[in-house]
Design a protein that fits this description.
Shape: elongated
CATH class: Mainly Alpha
Number of helices: 3
CATH topology: Methane Monooxygenase Hydroxylase, Chain G, domain 1
Order of helices and strands: HHH
Strand content: under 5%
CATH superfamily: Metal-sensitive repressor, helix protomer
Structural class: mainly alpha
Radius of gyration: 17 Å
Amino acid sequence: MHSRYRRDSEDLLKRLRKVEGQIRGIQKMVEQDRYCVDILNQISAAKAALDRVGLIILEDHTRGCVAEAMKTEDEARKIDELMLVIKKFVD
């Protein structure tokens, strides 16, 4: 099944490029021996931004791929698959 994103892929790529920039900034902070708390704050921000991207894709998967598959496939199997994806995402 093809991916169908609620938001266009360019929006997702823009968000991912921002996370990539945040990671590069964290690397630079470590190289510059910046204050640990400042580095940890930036790590927290990058993780939150990446989580937001993941949630967008997870929602799109649920509303698109899963909802569509449940019309034609075994519902219990699709729910099991979705729960496995959710568990991996939150761990």
